[in-house]
Every structure is written in structure tokens, then in C-alpha cells.
From TrEMBL:
<dbReference type="InterPro" id="IPR052357">
    <property type="entry name" value="Orn_Lys_Arg_decarboxylase-I"/>
</dbReference>
<dbReference type="Pfam" id="PF01276">
    <property type="entry name" value="OKR_DC_1"/>
</dbReference>
<dbReference type="InterPro" id="IPR008286">
    <property type="entry name" value="Prn/Lys/Arg_de-COase_C"/>
</dbReference>
<dbReference type="InterPro" id="IPR015424">
    <property type="entry name" value="PyrdxlP-dep_Trfase"/>
</dbReference>
<feature type="domain" description="Orn/Lys/Arg decarboxylases family 1 pyridoxal-P attachment site">
    <location>
        <begin position="4"/>
        <end position="292"/>
    </location>
</feature>
<keyword id="KW-0210">Decarboxylase</keyword>
<dbReference type="InterPro" id="IPR000310">
    <property type="entry name" value="Orn/Lys/Arg_deCO2ase_major_dom"/>
</dbReference>
<dbReference type="InterPro" id="IPR036633">
    <property type="entry name" value="Prn/Lys/Arg_de-COase_C_sf"/>
</dbReference>
<keyword id="KW-0663">Pyridoxal phosphate</keyword>
<dbReference type="Pfam" id="PF03711">
    <property type="entry name" value="OKR_DC_1_C"/>
</dbReference>
<keyword id="KW-0456">Lyase</keyword>
<protein>
    <submittedName>
        <fullName>Lysine decarboxylase</fullName>
        <ecNumber>4.1.1.18</ecNumber>
    </submittedName>
</protein>
<dbReference type="GO" id="GO:0008923">
    <property type="term" value="F:lysine decarboxylase activity"/>
</dbReference>
<comment type="similarity">
    <text>Belongs to the Orn/Lys/Arg decarboxylase class-I family.</text>
</comment>
<feature type="domain" description="Orn/Lys/Arg decarboxylase C-terminal">
    <location>
        <begin position="397"/>
        <end position="463"/>
    </location>
</feature>
<dbReference type="InterPro" id="IPR015421">
    <property type="entry name" value="PyrdxlP-dep_Trfase_major"/>
</dbReference>
Length: 474
């Protein structure tokens, strides 16, 4: 009897060349030493034995480890998450908004935010996303757009922003926190990609230091922690920690993996003890890499200010390959097959590489020479996107995400869905930012874009295996 997943996993692990992607432990080389050198991981796969505490009512070692995490990130309370930031986002929304409540959030949020709205029943009002037309990327909402929405929707019960985006872009989060607090409501931050910010001053500000009330961190993305290990932090008096705890009890397994929780504890200890030095190394490598590349690199340009873009994570290298005729999808495949280099993310024209604390000079040189080889290679014909990228604009919102989820559905191919109400979020994955939102009318622009993305080699999630979309019946 074969075990196809196990076999594929072994092949993938054996073929790892140079990876510039999550998890942040770099194929195990960057794991904290106790975990890296532990021979029999099966022996660590335990449950709530004597002395090991209970995640859902922690009074012993889990409580201590969570308290140390709170101290490390400067929070009042921190909780261990064993289902990624996805579960933290659901918990922070369940803890702060309920059925029919208004929550302000950016349109370019991760699909887990939309899924959390299905759970809590809140009504999203989308903040105007800023749009970088040169890079065809949307960054965070501007302070001004948050202020305008707060004034237009005084009934809003919470604001959620992403800090940073998948591309490492951050907005004016401290000023946004002040504006949100002036209304007496909390700022929730999806900082899935920003767990490392706290540990080096050259990185953008940590959302907690900027005053956010609840923050979620995918430790596994940028720290040496195992996949799915994440953190939820809270501070201040605007959100009741008891409600967060109740939400986490609802959402998290009663059999949490001690391996995941221990990897969070160890990653925290490593970052507190030597994170600054490790990150300083990664920052030097990032600077060296950025200095000499054959493609344009996303950077802060003082003579090209972009609204909503206040700072970029230097350890995230976003390049634009379309200038050389490549799509990001084709370039990603070429790099993987021909050069043994793996990117974190490809879009129709971008590649994103993540530098972590375990990368060394050899990795950087390998990436650089692979990119020069790519630039010298003729691009495959017809790989580029055949239609413009739609700006993320609010569409006609007919139902809340929960109402859309609960309505009876029918399924139709994408091309026949124009004008219908979507029952689901449809995203290119990664980055998982929905192009069609649940409860919204489906525009011709979005359908054209999704079809063009699929034709160009992008992976779409939210459709069934026949490529059909779930639509709400009236
Ligand atoms: C911006 C953002 N938020 C949340 C998530 C969900 O994080 P996790 O995979 O840890 O559940 C992701 C995942 O890629 C993300 O990119």
C-alpha cells in the first residue's frame, strides 16, 4: 500500500535546493538547537500528561510560556495558536464583533478574515485600499481613508488592518491606532507576516508597539517555529481577554500538538536571546542582494511616495519579472526546475523571496545567480496576463459573508457568474487575498482577471474541482 502524501513529502524534502519561503526555520537548519537535534520527534508528541498543563485552562508550563511570549512581544496577554494566524483572526473577530456589527477592514485582507466574518456574522465595510499602479499592488489603507470611514460609519465596532502585507508593506499603523482609539473602539491587526518586527529596530514597527489592541502573528512564517505555530496578543482595556479565551476554546483543538507549542516557546527564547544578532545578519544579506539584481525590486522611493506605504520589511524581496517578458508563475517554475531555487510567492508579474535568520551568503549568491540566469533566458511565449489587474474597489455588497454562506447555493462556471452574488471568497493562492468576496456581486472585471490568471498558470482557491463558483440563490 502506497502513502502518496508521505512519499511526495520525502521527495520534496530531499530535493530542497535553496528555499526562500516559509516556514522561517529554513528547512530545519534554523530551528532552535533543542528541537533541531532531537532525534525522536515521536517521543515529543504527547498530550496533557502530568506536568504538561492544558492549553485551554493553563496554570503551569503553558501559562508560563505564554507569559514569556507576552513579555517578549510587549503584550499584556499572549496565547499560543496551533492552527496558524487563521484561528487567531477568527478569535479576535469573534471576541470583538457579533451578528450585524460593522467592522472596517481593507479589501486586500487575507481570506481568513472573510471566513472569520462568516463565523461572527459581522458586516464588513471595506476601507479604500491604496493602489500602487507602477507595481500593480495594493498596500494598506491610508490614515485618511480610515478617518473618512470612521466618520461615515460611527457605528463601527472595530477596525482591522494588515501589517505587513504579503509583500512586506506596512502603513501608518500607529496613527491609525490613535484615530481608531479616538472613537473608543479597538484596532485588530493581522500581523501574520510581522512576528519578527519586534526584534530589530531596522524593521517596521511591531503592531503592538504601535498601539494595536489585538495582534496575530504567524510565528511559523518568519521565526524558527514549526508550521501552524502562531500567537495571539492583546493589550489595553478595549478588548476583554476573557472573550478571546472563550473564542479560542471554541476554535482550537482539545488535543493541541505539544511539538507546535514547544516550538513556539523555543522560537520565542531564541528570538529574545539572539534575535537581534540573527536579524542583523539577515538584514545585511538582504541589502547585499537588493544592491545587485537584474530585476526591479520593490523599495521605498522618496521621490515616488505611494499612499498607504509607510515602510517595507527589508527581509522580503519582491521583484518584478514582467519587464523581461516573464510571468511570475513561469519564472517561479523555471527557478525551481532549473536552478533549485524556491520562491515564497508568484503572481502574474512578481516573485517574493523571504530571507530568514538561517540564510547565509551562499544562499544569497545562489539566488542572485539564478535570477541573472533567468533574466538571460528567453521568456516563454504567451505567459503574460492578457487583461489588466482590477483595482481593489468595493463592489455591490448584497449580503454579509455569513448571510452569503447560509443561503442556498447553486454552482456555475466562472464565466457565467457575472452579476450573481458570490457565496464564497475566491483568491489567487498565495497570497490568498480575495478577488471575489462572499456576499458581493461578481463583476465582469473580476471574472476576466480570474480567467486570465488561471490561463497564465495562477492557482485559484474558492472554486470547485470543475472550476465552478458557489452562488447565492435569491
Ligand atoms: C496576511 C495573512 N494573514 C493571515 C494568514 C493566515 O495565516 P496562517 O497560515 O498562519 O493561518 C496569511 C497566510 O498566508 C496571510 O498571508
Amino acid at each position: 500500500m502506497g502513502a502518496p502524501l508521505w512519499e511526495a513529502l520525502c521527495r520534496a524534502a530531499a530535493s530542497v535546493g535553496s528555499g526562500f519561503h516559509t516556514p522561517g526555520h529554513n528547512g530545519g537548519t534554523g530551528l532552535p538547537e533543542p528541537l533541531k537535534y532531537w532525534r525522536n520527534w515521536g517521543a515529543l508528541d504527547l498530550s496533557e500528561l502530568e506536568g504538561l498543563d492544558n492549553l485551554h485552562a493553563p496554570v503551569g508550563v503553558i501559562a508560563q510560556a505564554q507569559q514569556l511570549a507576552a513579555e517578549a512581544w510587549g503584550a499584556e496577554r499572549s496565547w499560543f495558536l496551533i492552527n496558524g494566524s487563521t484561528v487567531g483572526i477568527a478569535a479576535m473577530l469573534l471576541a470583538t464583533v457579533g451578528e450585524g456589527d460593522t467592522v472596517l477592514l481593507p479589501r486586500n485582507c487575507h481570506q481568513s478574515v472573510l471566513h472569520a466574518l462568516v463565523l461572527c456574522g459581522a458586516k464588513p465595510v471595506y476601507l479604500e485600499a491604496s493602489w500602487d499602479s507602477t507595481w500593480e499592488l495594493s498596500h494598506g489603507p491610508t490614515l485618511e481613508s480610515v478617518e473618512v470611514s470612521l466618520a461615515s460609519y460611527p457605528e463601527a465596532r472595530a477596525v482591522l488592518v494588515v501589517h505587513p502585507t504579503y509583500f512586506g508593506a506596512t502603513g501608518e499603523v500607529a496613527a491609525i491606532a490613535r484615530a481608531v482609539h479616538a472613537q473608543g473602539i479597538p484596532l485588530l491587526v493581522d500581523a501574520a507576516h510581522g512576528a519578527h518586527f519586534r526584534f530589530h529596530e531596522a524593521l517596521p514597527v511591531c503592531a503592538l508597539a504601535a498601539g494595536a489592541d489585538v495582534v496575530v502573528h504567524s510565528a511559523h512564517k518568519t521565526l524558527p517555529a514549526l508550521t501552524q505555530a502562531a500567537l495571539l496578543h492583546q493589550q489595553g482595556s478595549l478588548v476583554d481577554p476573557g472573550r478571546i479565551e472563550a473564542a479560542l476554546r471554541l476554535l482550537q483543538s482539545t488535543s493541541p500538538s505539544y511539538l507546535l507549542m514547544a516550538s513556539l516557546d523555543l522560537a520565542r527564547a531564541q528570538m529574545v536571546n539572539s534575535g537581534h544578532t540573527l536579524l542583523a545578519g539577515a538584514l545585511v544579506l538582504a541589502e547585499k542582494l537588493r544592491a545587485h539584481l537584474p530585476f526591479a525590486v520593490l523599495a521605498m522611493e522618496p521621490d515616488r511616495p505611494v499612499p498607504g506605504l509607510a515602510a517595507l520589511d527589508p527581509t522580503r524581496i519582491t521583484i518584478d519579472v514582467a519587464g523581461c517578458g516573464w510571468s511570475g508563475f513561469a519564472a517561479e517554475a523555471w527557478l525551481n526546475q532549473e536552478a533549485g531555487v524556491r520562491a515564497e510567492l508568484a503572481t502574474h508579474r512578481h516573485l517574493v523571496f523571504i530571507l530568514n535568520t538561517a540564510h547565509g551568503l551562499l544562499d544569497i549568491e545562489k539566488l542572485r545567480s539564478a535570477l541573472f540566469a533567468l533574466a538571460a533566458e528567453p521568456a516563454p511565449a504567451g505567459a503574460l496576463l492578457s487583461c489588466p489587474v482590477p483595482r481593489p474597489r468595493p463592489g455591490e455588497q448584497r449580503l454579509t459573508p455569513r448571510q452569503a454562506f447560509e443561503r442556498p447555493h447553486r454552482r456555475l462556471p466562472l464565466a457565467q457568474a457575472i452579476g450573481c452574488t458570490s457565496a464564497a471568497a475566491v483568491s489567487a493562492y498565495p497570497p490568498g487575498v480575495p478577488i471575489v468576496l462572499p456576499g458581493e456581486a461578481i463583476s465582469a472585471e473580476a471574472v476576466d482577471y480570474l480567467l486570465a490568471l488561471t490561463a497564465a498558470g495562477g492557482e485559484i482557491v474558492g472554486l470547485d474541482p470543475q472550476g465552478r463558483l458557489a452562488l447565492c440563490l435569491d
